[in-house]
Amino acid sequence: MTPRIEEWLHQGEYDRAYDALVAAAERRFTTAARAAEALVDLAEFYSLYGEAEAEAWRAALDEAEARWSAAARNERYAALRFELEALTGQAVEPPEVEQPRAAYHVAQGLAYLGRMEAALAALPDPEALPPFLEARAWALSGRVHESLGRLDDAARAHERAAARSYGKERLWSLLDAAALWLETEAAERAQALLAEAEPLLGEGELSDRATYRYLRARVELLLGNPERAAEEIVQAEGLEAAGAGLSHGTAMVRAQVHQQSGRLEAARAAYQDAEKRAAAGDLPFVWHEWGLFELDHGDLIRAEALLRKVASDEAYPHRAHALADLAEAYYRLGDGAAADEAARRALELGTVPAAHLILGNRAYDVGAWDEALAHYRAAAAAAREGDRDWVTATEMIVDVLAQSGYPNPAEVAELAERLLPYLPPSDEWRETLRGYADRARELALKGRLLN
Question: How far apart are CA 412 and CA 93, in angstroms?
């Protein structure tokens, strides 16, 4: 593949690149090896389209092997053959390769097989690849990191892909990066990327414009602007209705807009819309968020029914958190035994602060201070400082230590002071914490005087 063809591919001039590759594959070469190499180039071009060009991809590889019996020993041929077989669901072992270009195709094949850790290990340094593959390697890195739950790394990789892309590929990478930053609640960073994406919308599809508006709505929600979010989601759903297809995601954001504005019945209706629109694989995500909404707004029976459906889905990637949320529903319904079971099942699947909180509350209710304190400490350690679970767990640590007679007054005072900046002025815990802190300081002072 000549540098000029690679540059055309990098800039998205696929028709020009295709014509040149086909001409090279049909040209009469002096050696079978050169003919086979041209066909491998053509197969690599088809691989960029994935399943849509799988048959043409296979035909190019088959012809390369037919023209040159040693083709199978060519690293790029072997890697492209592996990637193709992986794409079509055949569990084959990857070939041993050293060339970065071949390694990229091996990594892509491993990703198709769902072997994400192996794909990450196989992926070469993207900067060692031709620019048209460098951008794709960064995007692949982003998808792999996302599947492994490393959202910050995934977002940064898509940003790198955007920096090495043009046109619609750049647009897609910017949208992917913005979506991932939103998952980490980095609204300002997502907003900046969407501003970069806006001038490229004309090069995208209707669905890309709908996604852009949907992401803008989520940004505005995170920034506390529900009315602006409402305007964006109306535009997103309008674009979907015009041809992109109504999605459950836009309905869920509409539900969040109504929820943030206090329109609870409208929020429920939006969740019902989301449930109707969702494909089978997306339903657990809708039920989980809807269940949390009902948990926060008092319909515990409906919350328990929704969360029970989610928690029973073994394929749901956030099942541990769904079990912890189900445990809270049971706890608030007064079914302590069911709450214990769901919380312990959640902890078998992962470290979930909310599960420790439920078990801590159960121990607190019967005055088992040591057990309660152990669970609250575990919850605080697993949560991020300032998050709701961290605040709740730390409040309860202070409370248990106070109820236990202030065994460590200095810790009570320190934790209470650390908590106060995270509580709104109207929070009733503020006065309680100040009282605990004052009492702890008195005890600490008395201890020093006695010593």
Answer: 57
